[in-house]
Design goal:
By secondary structure, the chain is α+β, with helices and mostly antiparallel strands. It contains 4 helices and 4 strands, in the order ββαααββα.
């Protein structure tokens, strides 16, 4: 069944799942980009779905919980699944300093 913009609910869930694997919170704008990436990788060209249509499609998916995130932003999270996401805005570095020395040496 097609949700919106030619995308099925399964395709949307797959994109959300891939963001969980990457530990990225599935904000609407990021989910839209991931859907385009997956469509391109499958040889279907870019998925063309508007952000409002995508939100409506996510809200129609029983396995997704759409939450307002401030302003016009929103996220689509998998119901019953722990939300373990990287905070891309956090100044805290969880990697040991030694790793960064090794990375610098590798790229030098």
């Amino acid at each position: 069944a097609t949700a919106t913009g030619g995308l099925s609910g399964a395709e949307i869930l797959s994109a959300v799942e891939s963001l969980y694997v990457d530990e990225l919170k599935p904000y609407g704008r990021i989910l839209r980009k991931r859907l385009a990436e997956q469509a391109n990788a499958a040889g279907r060209g870019a998925a063309d779905i508007g952000i409002r249509e995508l939100r409506t499609a996510c809200e129609a998916c029983a396995w997704l919980d759409v939450q307002a995130e401030g302003g016009a932003d929103w996220s689509a999270q998998i119901r019953g699944r722990p939300a373990v996401f990287v905070d891309v805005y956090s100044p805290q570095d969880h990697y040991p300093q030694e790793l960064w020395y090794q990375v610098a040496a590798y790229f030098a």
